[in-house]
Each structure stands twice: as C-alpha cells, then as structure tokens.
C-alpha cells in the first residue's frame, strides 16, 4: 500500500533584528521548531530592521540555531535598506532560493527594491518562475516578503507589489498551492481560486499590531489535505485551518 506521508513546514517571518527582537521569544521559537521537527523552515523576510551588517550577523546567528536542515530565506523591504541587499546575497547566496524534494517545490522570490517599501516581482522574472513551476507534480509553494492581497487590521493599504494583479494571474495559471508571505505582522489566510495565501505575523519582534501577539505557522500536507496552524508564540493557542488539497498529486 502506498504510504501517505505528511510533510511539515514551519513558516516564520519578520524577525527584525536588532532593536525589536525579543530574546525570550527567540528562544521559545527555537525550542518549538526543535519539537515540531519540520522538514523545511521558510523565513519570509525582514530579518533586520535597517539592513545593517551588524543586524544581519545577529539574524544569521539566530538562524544557525534553528534545528532544520532545509531553510528557505527571502529578503524583506527592511533587509534591502542601506545597501543591505548586498549583505543578504553574501550571507544567503541567492535572492531566489529553490528547494525541491519528491513531494514539494518551494521557490523564494525577492519582492523588494532597495530603499523602497513597495513590493515588485517584475515581469522579467515571470519566465523563470514559470520554468520552475509549470508542469511540476508536487505541492507548489511560492515564498515572498510582500503580501499580494490586503490583510485586515493593518491600516491603510500600501506596499502590495505593484504588479500583484499580473503575478496573481501567473500563480493561478501555474496552479500554485500555497503562497507564503510576511510584512504585515498579522497572521492571516486567504483562499483565492484554488491557492492559499498565508501571511505570517512577526515571529519574535515587538513590532506587533495593536494587542497582537508574536506567532508562526505550521503547514502540514499529505496527498489529499493541507492543514495550516496559526500558532500564538506566547501561549501556544492554535487556530487550525484545514482544507482539501485542490491541486491533487496525480
Ligand atoms: Fe516587517
Ligand atoms: Fe516588511
């Protein structure tokens, strides 16, 4: 009988080293990741507050403590500030990281522009994204910093990628299962057509919305279902969202 294997992914975002990082929260998430034993950890940007080298070093040291062999990291608008985009490339080697195994493909995308907070994917990158994602019989995930659809309770809408309409169409055409993003510091899930758009809160920083809390997501999937757990880092309260896998593995 064919084994229906469950894959676990942890999605964290918006660490905001240095001034906004909370040490106890950092320790807690390192411990949580160790306990969950995910196959992959995805970090959707804003590792730093200002893109400064010192902040990058502290973020890098934190990421080194994460007990997971596969870590996919993309750049946030804060990381691209002050020439920080060069340091990101130096440390992480790739602004478009690609992870694949027999079940999963995750493509990270740099949606930032230096010293501009607005997102931008860029039509020139669409053919690369299409080349990697078209006709792939795996769970397809795109990870980028900026949200593509407005997120509630985050004030006046801004910073959505300037080409988000075209990019949403590409995501739909390519039958992407999940899009992971950050930036808004508020956990949220939208489902548009057959794709889940999952935004993480800030994992470990004080940059909270209202009386919000730090948190992260656990994504689990098998051949038929996707489960997304939104975890409150402070008290482990969990909001679970479960749905069928719309683009079934054949
Ligand atoms: Fe952020
Ligand atoms: Fe951001």
TrEMBL record:
Pfam families cross-referenced by the UniProt entry: Metallophos
InterPro entries attached to this UniProt entry: Calcineurin-like_PHP, CNP_phosphodiesterase-III, Metallo-depent_PP-like
Any GO molecular function: hydrolase activity
Ranges for domain Calcineurin-like phosphoesterase: 8-186
Record flagged with keyword Iron: yes
Origin superkingdom: Bacteria
Keywords assigned: Hydrolase, Iron, Metal-binding
Family under the similarity heading: Belongs to the cyclic nucleotide phosphodiesterase class-III family.
Name of the protein in its database record: Metallophosphoesterase
Species of provenance: candidate division TA06 bacterium 34_109
Lineage, uppermost ranks: Bacteria, Bacteria division TA06
């Amino acid at each position: 009988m064919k084994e229906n294997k469950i894959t676990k992914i942890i999605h964290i975002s918006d660490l905001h080293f240095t001034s906004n990082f909370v040490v106890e929260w950092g320790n807690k998430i390192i411990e949580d990741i160790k306990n969950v034993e995910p196959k992959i950890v995805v970090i959707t940007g804003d590792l730093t507050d200002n893109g400064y080298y010192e902040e990058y070093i502290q973020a890098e040291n934190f990421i080194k403590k994460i007990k997971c062999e596969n870590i996919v990291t993309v750049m946030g608008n804060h990381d691209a500030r002050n020439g920080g985009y060069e340091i990101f490339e130096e440390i992480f080697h790739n602004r478009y990281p690609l992870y694949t195994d027999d079940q999963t493909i995750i493509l990270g995308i740099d949606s930032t522009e230096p010293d501009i907070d607005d997102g931008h994917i860029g039509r020139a990158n669409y053919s690369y994204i299409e080349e990697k994602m078209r006709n792939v019989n795996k769970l397809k995930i795109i990870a980028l910093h900026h949200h593509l659809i407005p997120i509630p309770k985050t004030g006046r809408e801004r910073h959505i990628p300037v080409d988000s309409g075209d990019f949403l169409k590409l995501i739909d055409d390519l039958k992407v299962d999940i899009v992971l993003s950050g930036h808004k510091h508020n956990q949220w899930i939208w489902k548009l057509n057959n794709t889940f758009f999952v935004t993480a809160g800030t994992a470990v920083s004080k940059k909270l919305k209202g009386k919000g809390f730090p948190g992260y997501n656990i994504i689990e999937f098998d051949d038929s279902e996707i489960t997304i757990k939104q975890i409150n880092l402070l008290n482990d309260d969990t909001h679970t969202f479960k749905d069928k896998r719309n683009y079934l593995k054949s």
